[in-house]
Each structure stands twice: as structure tokens, then as C-alpha cells.
Amino acid sequence: MAAGARIEIRVQPRASRNTISGVRAGVLRIRVTAPPVDGHANAAAIALLAQALGVPKSAIRLVKGASSRDKTLAVESMSQEEVNQCLNLLGG
Fold it and tell me: What secondary structure does DSSP assign to 42-90, as a single string?
């Protein structure tokens, strides 16, 4: 059974808008308007990524980096290849 996909991201909180701004050094860069307080930026990043991948938010969980800008997310319902294809289509 597949364990799902892992995505390395870097979150920029308090941005002017929610957007996926591409990949730099193998890390997906996500900008969110939410502040980095009480997990709001984490939740916003997960919601944005879930929308981009077409999966429910509950299919994405934070594996590492709850209080850091650099995070590792797991997408339970997609393979690594499927996630990579979706992100390539988004320009990420």
C-alpha cells in the first residue's frame, strides 16, 4: 500500500495574497496572508495546497516543521508522481 507523497515547502506568512510561487532549490514556495500565530499560516498553506492538488484538506498533514517556515507535508491520497505532475502543471 502506498504511503502517499511528501512535499517540502517554505511558507511566507503575512503575504499580500495566497499563492504558490514556484520551486526554488527543490522546495515548493507558498505565500499565505495568514499570520504565523496559533497555526493559522500552517492551516492556510494546507488549504491552498489541497485546493491546488484537488484533494480535501484532511488528505494533507503536517509531518515536520510546525513552528518553522520550512515544512514537510504528506499527501495521503496521491502518489509522489501524481503530486509532481500537478505541481508541474501549476508551474511549481
Answer: HHHHHHHHHHHHT--GGGEEEEE-TTSSEEEEEETTS-HHHHHHHHHHT
Each residue of 2-55: pLDDT tens digit?
A: 568 999 999 999 999 999 998 888 899 999 999 999 999 999 999 999 999 999
Is the torsion defined by CA of 73, 81, 20, 50 positive or negative?
negative
Coil, strand or helix at 41: helix
The pLDDT of residue 2 is 52
The domains located in the chain, with CATH, are 5-89 (3.30.1200.10)
- How far apart are alpha carbons 39 and 5 in whole angstroms? 22
The pTM (predicted TM-score) of the whole model is 0.91
**C-alpha Rg value of the chain to the nearest Å:** 12
Sign of CA dihedral 27, 51, 46, 62: negative
